[in-house]
Input
Amino acid sequence: SKEIVDKWVKGTCRFCGTGCGVYVGVKDGKVVAIKGNPEAKTNFGFLCVKGFLAYKCMYHPDRLKYPMIRQKDGKFKRVSWDEALDYVAKKFKYFHKKYGKDSVAYYGSGQCTTEESYTFNKLWKGGFRSNMVEGNPRLCMASAVGGYITTFGSDEPVGSYADIENAKCIFLVGSNTSECHPIIFRRIMRHKLRNPDVKIIVCEPRKTNTAKIADLWLPVDPGTDLAVFHSMAREIIKNNWHDKKFIDAHTRITDGKNVYSFDKYVEFVEQFKPEVVEKLTRCPAENIRKAAKWFATSGATMTLWTMGLNQRTRGVWANNLIHNLHLITGNICKPGADSFSLTGQPNACGGVRETGSLCHLLPGTKPVKDKKWRTHVEKVWGLKPGTIDPKPGFHTMKMFDSLGGENDPNKPIKAMLTSTTNPAQSLPNLNRYIKGMKDAFLVVLDIFPTKTTQLADVVLPAAFLYEKGGVYGCSERRSQLTEKAVNPPGEAKPDIWIAAQIAKRMGFEKLIPWNMDDSMKANEMAWTDYITVTKDSDHSLWGATYDRLKKEKAGIQWPCPYPGHPGTYKRYVRGMDPMFEHEEFKRFFGKKIPDDAKIYFYMDKKGEGRANIWLRPYKGPAEVPDAEYPFYLTTGRVIAHWHTGTMTMRIPEIARSYPYAYIEIHPDDARKYNIFEGDLVEVISRRGKAILPARITKNSLPGVLFVPWFDQEISRMINFVCNDAVDPGSKEPEFKIAAVKIRKY
Ligand code: SF4
Output
């Protein structure tokens, strides 16, 4: 390797939430190769095709290299950075003055670095005094956040990836792990190959490649799996496989209003007899019984899930019900037993959830409504008491619904800055939101032209991860630092520099003092600021200084509250979780952890150290098939592509292997409509339509269609068809489920 590169620079993969460690190979100032980091605890040196080939898009001729402002004739004109930034600041000031502090919104991404998300969040909430801050993790992880907080009192998993190798049973729910988290899937496969007795159960509407290797597949109609989870709980209790001691010591049964006895829970789940649930879900009763047995009696069961559980109108409830299964069987807080949400994006956890870059949160994933925390943040940020608005801003869908031009009195948000995301392709029910983006004053930071830059007034060329460096925090609470490897092309700049320049022009230089050209220096200042604010919280990364992150080969898992602390594999367990001994944390949050408590859910809002087992009634999706729209449509990713294809479609090998999206149709349905492989099929919902070539496969159940969402061709963009109904708790939209009809085109 010495011959082909000048140096290898440590980093993380730019794509999914697995957080694979990489080394970036640099030759003559350019990235020419990427290899896996064998010491990384996430991937042990392995990478999937996206990770290996990521660098190839960095040198695509489409890279945005210069700031541009749209002119009166609708065309973009190249301008200097000063001109672009002065213009943005002037417009923002104008809107603030004329329409109030909440008329300018920020919409970020789980692909921005932690330092970038933190900086924009601080500028908006501390500088502009506005909570109009959102990010695309609202579209993918908000239900998981809601599930963790309502069950355990604190966001993010109890355990770690290392539980995979200790599990005796692995339950994959709503996750096509083999394609969406390929390196996690590899770990699962390796574990299974070495330990053939390990059971793998997959619950999914499609027989994906993940389901194909499973010992047991629980097929379900989209959005009906809540009944399956309750039914498994019923079977577990009926057969006395539950852990009564754990339930009594560490949980409470609740519906959110009252606390109930365990008998009440037994009575509640009684309605979910497997045969009844089979009729509702299409999951065979026999499979439910077998899954319940394996789950409860394995000795160590780990559940992993992604968007199939989250992108729903009952996403929080679905998350709660998975946690229920772990709590009633005591499959938590011990090696191999965990209820683990796989994050979609590389830095949804670290960047957006942990820095509180959502409209209702502050750094440390604490609500803006929490006066004590607000006062603390104001103090550390050097703000006058009362500066931060206690009222949450608008969640993503409401934010885009409220975005519009000056001549529309019904649209209170007049301007938006978006970074590292492509809402004009990724929002559900796109027809409803495009006009708002077009009419408002839209500033877009990105590395490539996208559907969103097409609607922008100002386009600011951004740096790729390896051109700026920064920290990403993956699914397992692990923060890993990427060093800057090369310079960005043309005049492209890191987001953190852009944020600091806007802050300076708007009079907030003191708040964001990291206004410098050296991106690693700016990153370090932002990171230090962030870990100072969250120093004594349950999310503490105080021991993870920038210097240390630079040296660590595998990053650090929070909580890491002291210099030298090794990071935390498992939370809520004495001897593993440092918060049991962290006096400042206990003092600040008023936590009393009994001396003899071995397991204690210390973020329990009632102060009893218990997790909640939820009585959640069954509720189906917002839309179910009917006579007019007789099919379920579900959507997802494919192994080769990342999100809207902005980057991966510019990697030649990947573009060739997956050039366009398609619609999966069961052969029985294809026959009814006289559709053959490759025929164009129009798929239509109450909101919009798309036209895609047919792929006839038994992967999906009859009556269930599947379309991947990476394709940028307007006629194949499936998000015109998707439903934008949101979960009432998490406000996450129901991307995964829509009622549609089809016709041969
Ligand atoms: Fe990157 Fe995810 Fe692939 Fe790992 S599994 S190389 S993080 S895309």
